[in-house]
Amino acid sequence: MRVAGYGRVDRGAALSFRFDGRPLRGFAGDTLASALLANGVRLVGRSFKCHRPRGLLAAGSEEPNGLVSVAGVPNLRATMVELAEGLEAQAQNAWPALGLDLMAVNDLFAPFLGAGFYYKAFMGPGRTWERVYEPLIRRAAGLGRLGRAPDETWRETAYAHCDLLVIGAGPAGLMAALTAGRAGRDVILAEEDAAAGGRLLAEDEEVDGRPGADWALAVARDLAAMPNVRVMMRTAVTGAYDGGTYAALERAAPGHAGPRETFWRIVAPRAVLAAGALERPIAFADNDRPGIMLAGAARAYLHRWGAVAGPRVAVFANNGGAARTARDMARAGVEVTGVFDAREGAHVVGSRGRQGLRAVTVEAGGRRHAVPADCLAVSGGWSPNVHLACHLGARPVWDDRLAAFLPPQDGVPGMVPAGAAAGVFSTAGCLASGVDAAVAALGVDALELPRAEDGAYEIAPLWHVPGKRRAWLDFQNDVTVKDVQGAAAENYRSVEHMKRYTTQGMAPDQGKSSNLLALAVLAEATGRSIPETGTTTFRPPYVPVPVGAMGAGGRGRRFAPERLSPANDAIAGRGAPTVEAGLWHRPSYFPAPGEGWEAACAREAAMVRNAVGVADVSTLGKIDVQGPVAGAFLDFVYANGISTLKAGRARYGIMLREDGHVMDDGTVARLGDDHFLLTTTTAAAGPVMRHLEFVHQCLRPEMDLRMVSVSDQWAQFAVAGPRARAVLGAVLEGGLPDPFPFMACGAVSVGGVAGRLFRISFSGELGYEIAVPARYGTALYAALLAAAEAEGGGPYGMEAMNVLRIEKGFLTHAEIDGRVTAHDLGLGRMVAEKDCIGRVAAGRPALTDPARPRLVGVRTVAAGDEMTAGALLFAKGNRPTAPNIAGHVSSVGWSTVSGRMIGLGFLKHGPERLGEVVRLVDRLRGVWTDVEITAPCFYDTEGGRMRG
Amino acid sequence: MVELTATLPLDDGPLEAGGARLRLVESGPITALAPYKGAEARLSAALQVAHGMGFAGPGQVGQAGPGRCIWAGLRMAWLVGVRADEGLAAHAALSDLSDGWVCLRLEGAAEEVLARLTPLDLRRGAFPEGRSARSELAQMPALFVRDAAGFEMFVMRSMARSAWGEIALAMQGVAARG
Prior knowledge:
The structure holds 2 protein chains of 2 kinds.
Chain A: E1 10-19, E2 22-28, H1 32-38, E3 45-46, E4 53-54, E5 67-70, E6 73-77, E7 87-91, H2 105-108, H3 117-121, H4 128-140, E8 155-161, E9 164-167, H5 171-182, E10 187-190, E11 206-207, E12 210-211, H6 212-225, E13 229-232, E14 235-241, E15 245-251, E16 261-267, E17 270-273, E18 277-279, E19 292-294, H7 295-305, E20 312-317, H8 321-331, E21 335-341, E22 347-352, E23 359-364, E24 367-372, E25 375-379, E26 382-384, E27 397-399, E28 404-406, E29 415-417, H9 427-442, E30 472-474, E31 479-480, H10 481-489, H11 495-502, H12 515-526, H13 530-533, H14 547-550, H15 568-573, E32 578-581, E33 584-587, H16 597-610, E34 613-616, E35 621-626, H17 630-637, E36 649-656, E37 662-672, E38 675-680, H18 685-699, E39 706-709, E40 714-720, H19 724-731, E41 745-750, E42 753-758, E43 767-773, H20 777-790, E44 794-795, H21 798-808, H22 839-842, H23 845-848, E45 853-860, E46 872-875, E47 887-895, E48 900-908, E49 917-922, E50 927-934, H24 944-947
Helix pairs in contact in A: 5-6, 5-9, 7-8, 10-11, 10-12, 16-21, 19-20
Chain B: E1 15-17, E2 20-25, E3 30-35, H1 40-51, E4 61-64, E5 67-73, E6 76-80, E7 92-96, E8 101-108, H2 110-114, E9 131-137, E10 140-147, E11 150-156, H3 160-176
Antiparallel strand pairs in B: 1-2, 2-8, 3-6, 3-7, 4-5, 5-6, 8-11, 9-10, 10-11
């Protein structure tokens, strides 16, 4: 119900919303939780395991019961959902309805559903657990359900930097931010709530002679007006990480059209932890009835939103919160039916009511009596929010006087706890503590303090009231006092074991209101003190963070940048589907009308063999290496000699890793005495550059050379086929240089543009690669294609390129898969007798064993048979089982020149088994074929065509 | 006789959103200068003679007329806007990058937009005018230069469209905040 004259909601701005389909009304400034209370709705959800009816316990992000789904997003806390016109919220974990939940039958079986029940009850036989029990349990239990559709929500990630991050905008945080802001420092003030003020919004207190909430609003406005201060409302700091980095989740305001959430990484050398404190309940029998809530929450609902859970309120506490709550309720005209202060021996021992509280049972002076109440405000004391201070592994420190854990000293370098988070529970103390923290963090001047209330906090610890019926500790996970005692009895005495056995402290709220209670019950059950028992580990995130927020920007095509060739548009214009290689999007094939990929590939391959083809090879990595000792350096990084290469010539080279395996291959062209141009495979350009830098900076720093990636500078095209000369002759200024023998390179000019020509071939045909600066890539590609088409040729894509190179036994990373040596590839003789990376390791006996799988060609015995890459090879007659694996196929393609499928692969003793027929088995795709082992070259084995 | 016409790495025109303005700019020639061992002082002197400015140390940007010398990484600066004097090759490895990198210019509320794209500390105290920094821009390698009007981001030509798309989306994100 709503209380006249109370609350800071805008009563002039009424909003309609629905809860579980029921139309209700609230006001701007309400949360879903406050609006529900104001509408007299106490039952807001069903519990996780037992489907018990539950109501709101808290008023902030720690709320364990009020979990709702909004617009398909589950497990939102009703206390954090800002009311908006037309909001539709669904209760969770109830079927068919919140009021009549048939699954509540679970509660009848509660005696069998105690902690660890499924470890004991749902044993065997066989696979019954995964097949029967687990699906059943998963259907019966659980919180909200995820939507099945892809999440299209717009979210962002962002970075921020500041001198001081202030976490929390309560009295301490506001004063810390003000102190640092006035001193001219860059400040970020992050507050998870939609309004600044913290407890000042929830209490009836004055600061500087005016209502605390008004003071907070004014200070927040002052801060927002400072150019060096950034006030981030609705922003929960969720984690503290190394190097002064903090994670924070910012929610958009209701009705905001932009990104719904922004995941921030805030870098701050100093931070003030002013995250406040959380109130904890006291466990007693049936303490989970809707209407039983934390006293601080009851006051927050009253003062901030003008809402109470019912006309009759009783109070039960072990600290001064009892009197304060009773006073505030009475002033608001709410009937206070009883104030039970545990310090004076009065205990609430039970509750009555079905879906909402009707009365509590009280024991005082040895007598029990019932007291009518719609709402019981409970306070078991306050626990400082130490979480962030413990995220780097430090443990909180027990304080007997406060009966609470305090943040550790220097738990996070640069972080200073302040206010209630530091165990300071009076408003005046918090204001002073905020100033002190900013002064301590930054060494700035202190500000004068506003006047405020300065009461003492007195508490007599009371964790649970003994009784026979279930007393709930963790509302979100349905964990009771008895469960924790049971865990201890079963010898789960470590707090970490107790947590896992009972599930206490798991799920969205991570035990915010239950951890200390459970710990105290465990300590009592094991005869230890609370500090001896210790806490579980505090880990990020402090509040739930959608994975979609952390990974914002990583969905679909934005998963990775797309690298496009300079000729991309011309290629796309010819309708070529693309395939990704090392972020580059390369054309697979160029389909003629009505042509599928296989037909296009075969046609393109034949075109190159018989006429001429043009392929875009701009994507290959290109690295300029220059300097007087560049040749010597390349001798060190390539397995074969490079320094002997003459200017104007190119050479094929392989690079080994330190462990002797092949890292990459490519050509090296010597453009001048001190200038080499390396090409790498498309996907390995980055790793090769990193490797070269490592070798230069760490292994051979004395060598004087410099290197720079020029991959994107050049558009480069392969022109291959018997008619290649005619195509280049038509394009090059002054015609094709003559002589220009195989593996020559040199400068050329195309229409006045300086380019480079290389006589290299990846197809086995007469082949050239021509390069011009990238801006001319589209134009050169068009010119080459026009010339090629005049010669009966055209463009070819990756599929045809693959077939052509398999026919020649040329390698790609399908073969250079990180596990093969030069010896395996038949290139052992390339490893020169000189010092080079990987040479010694490559000579180890195990890497030169002839029994290793080594490169071979494979061809189907029957022309029509299928063959697949990734298939395994077995000697004929051997059973196709793992111990009998003799090798595998790495690449396959339909070879026009062979009239069948051919491939490359690796076979034990391979080169000694040419002509042998072996069994190819691909269980995944159901391919069983006989294949013949051949030399890894199917076409023009003498190389006359490419050298001619 | 074949005539080659140049094409731009992207067709998108200037974009304005969220108080920021984005456009593709023609930076002029880019030459990577990587001084050989012990040759930095000689390179700097030769640069001074040929182009009126010295070699840029870490984070520095020198300017003389249309030319700029922009620090671009370990032992490397880029000479941008003018053709590098060939004599510099005596002291440094020179590589033409004019077509390898594309310059995008962001003005107005650039800091707000870039906060969504790069981990760099963009506060003026940490990244003042006339400085450069290497970092990532939405997973892409980039060279950032700040001047009085905003930032220039040099990105690899092959990634120019992805970079443009990411910046444009970040601008929408800023715009939506009002």
